[in-house]
Amino acid sequence: MTDLRQLRKRKNKGTVPKNKPDTSASSEITLSVASRESPKHKTLFDIAAERQAELQGGQPFAPISTDESPSIVTAKISPDGALSIFDDQPPTDEPIGPLGQAVFFAVTLTMLHFTLDVLVHQQYRQQIGWDMIFQRTISTFTILAALLYIFHSRASALWAQMMFLGLSVAAGCYLIYSSSEEPYFAVMKRAPPLGTLWVWSVIEMRLEMALLSVMAVGGYFCWGEYSIF
């Protein structure tokens, strides 16, 4: 009996209670107080603040000037926080250049002059002198190409708009007067160039200026009591 009790005591001393926590693993972890000093490297907030300041001081948010064409700026942020800016030029609206534009419009307006020249001869039942018409057509193309090369690229300026306004009103009113008051020979000579100048000046103007010129010519037509037929 005594031996049995001693054996039980030895067993109880060698057992570990199940609900007792094992502190052997936690005792190996060293505890330290968190550092309150500022980090030595840049944080995400610092990188974002720098990028925002660079973008606000650059082209993406700069006011667009009316005198210069706006440029397209592409910004790229690398993983390490470096900012790369690429200045992309916008596509040009005139791929053939001022000279090509002048030749293109000159050809179109010369065709209009040629058509008016033929029609005015047909209206007065006159024999068409093709040699003279072709000579006038070549001369018209040369003059129009020079004028378009000089003024077409500057048509958006205010002084150019006022010039085209005066030219359109003068050409339109004089065309009406010449067609109604002057003899047919003068009409045959003046109608094609006046009509061509009138159309060209209206094309070069902005919409509101073109409407103003048409209203002025229409007012002169009504004031003079002219008739279409």
What does this structure look like?
With 229 residues, the protein is mostly helical. 60% of the residues lie in helices and 5% in strands. It has seven helices and two strands; from the N terminus they run H-H-E-E-H-H-H-H-H. A two-stranded antiparallel ribbon has the order 1-2. Helix 3 packs antiparallel against helix 6. The longest helix has 27 residues. The mean pLDDT is 79.
- Average predicted local confidence, pLDDT: 79
Beta-strand content estimate: 5-15%
Care to count the β-strands? 2
- Rg (C-alpha, Å): 44 Å
The protein's oligomeric status is: single chain
Low-confidence stretches: none
N-end to C-end Cα span: 147 Å
- Overall shape: it is rod-shaped
Helix content: 55-70%
Strand order of the largest sheet: 1-2
* Largest sheet features: 2 strands, antiparallel
Order of helices and strands: HHEEHHHHH
Task: Provide the structure class.
Answer: mainly alpha
Number of helices: 7
